[in-house]
Amino acid sequence: MFKLLAKLNKWLLPNYTKEQLDLAKATKFQKAIIAWKYFVTTRALD
């Protein structure tokens, strides 16, 4: 299930690495997206 979510995240959610987002200047919503992507990615790798 997490592998499917990881693929959907990659397709639907923005990639802040390519945009070179500074975490100190990120909004709470952007931080929430980063945390969600991290959570799903770590679960998909297990």
Number of strands: 0
The helix content, as a percent range, equals 55-70%
Element-by-element helix/strand order: HH
Low-confidence stretches: none
> How large is the radius of gyration?
11 Å
Instruction: Characterize the overall form.
Output: elongated
The biggest beta sheet reads: none
Query: Into which percentage range does the β-strand content fall?
Result: under 5%
What would you call the structural class?
mainly alpha
Number of helices: 2
What is the structure about, briefly put?
The protein is mainly alpha-helical and 46 residues long. The chain has helices at residues 2-12, 28-45.
Notable characteristics:
mainly alpha; 63% helix; SsrA-binding protein; 0% strand; 46 residues
Helices and strands in order:
Elements: H1 2-12, H2 28-45
Helix pairs in contact: 1-2
Q: Would you give an account of this structure?
A:
This protein has 46 residues and is an all-alpha fold. 63% of the residues lie in helices and 0% in strands. Helix 1 (2-12) runs antiparallel to helix 2 (28-45). The protein is elongated and about 30 Å long. This is SsrA-binding protein. It comes from Flavobacterium qiangtangense.
